[in-house]
TrEMBL record:
Residues covered by region (Disordered): 338-360
Any GO BP: DNA integration
Biased composition (Basic and acidic residues): 350-360
Organism: Oncorhynchus kisutch (Coho salmon)
InterPro entries xref list: Integrase_cat-core, Integrase_H2C2, Retrovirus_Pol_polyprotein, RNaseH-like_sf, RNaseH_sf
Recorded GO MF terms: nucleic acid binding
UniProt-recorded name of the protein: Gypsy retrotransposon integrase-like protein 1
Residues in Integrase catalytic domain copies: 148-307
Amino acid sequence: MFFTRFRFTISYRPGSLNTKADALSRLYDTEDRSIDPTPIIPAAKLVAPVVWDVDADIERALREEPAPPQCPEGRRYVPLAVRDQLIRWPHCLPSSGHPGIFRTGLERKYWWPTLRRDVRFYVSSCSVCAQSKAPRHLPRGKLQPLPVPQRPWTHLSVDFLTDLPPSQGNTTILVVLDRFSKSCRLIPLPGLPTALQTAEALFTHDFRHYGVPEDIVSDRGPQFISRVWRAFMERLGVSVSLTSGYHPESNGQEERVNQEVGRFLRSYCQDRPGEWARYIPWAEIAQNSLSHSSTNMSPFECVLGYQPVLAPWHQSQTEAPAVEEWVQRSKETWRAVQESLRQASKRQKKSADHHRSEAPVFAPRDRVWLSTRN
């Protein structure tokens, strides 16, 4: 600041011209003098040192609650009366930006016995964080499998395959899945049907072959939440089960069959996408003929008691067994399928629960946060 009042002309002086320093430059003082730590700012200009309010509050609180002997060296003990204020200070200020539990930086300077627990509780209950931060945890709650049916075609799952290229006047497939045998029925439709048309298609193509089921699982499409659908099923004595919104895993078996049917049609109709309706019967036969990992047998064998073949039978295979033997074999098959389904359900639940936490327990009148993303 002193030299700013002068005007200097800066010029370059090469090193070859820098001769030995003159005597004045080599003068030094051999006398030891004490260094006075006097501030360069005059005392008249000094108003007060910069002190955070929270530090001043800590100083006042320490007079009533001195620091315990176990306080680590280099860290400051915080009395109980100031702890909430101190946690709020590095978390809620605009310069902090609501950091996470491990990023407040309090442990580098401050200490008290329950510091980590108190910080975790405060940050976890911060309303601003709950509303503005994206959740990083997996969905809460353990897997709850659907109940295992007692026999074939009593518990169904239904869904639509839509937006297909036009083929024989059809653009949609109604997929009906038996949750016991994993057998499916594929019903081509000219478009996305209404609730009444969906119920009539099920009655025409499924109920008349296997009887009226006990329960039908579906998503929350407009056909399945309408009053017409509920009234139709109520008159037939069928209970209606809807999956959770934006949670297709609730009807995962149906979603898996949809993928398999789509893969089959792409394999055989990729060069002729307008002919997929011709291959629907073949896709249904293929899907029902393949062995399923949950039942360890094909849907055909589970429902009929035998595995049909596409090739002609030999003469020895044409002799039909007795009716009683057929019924007994069917019952044994169903018992084996039931046990296989239970084991498969246990395996799936164990695998899914390995990466999940327990569901939170709520009581009536509890205040909870509701996500509006969907």
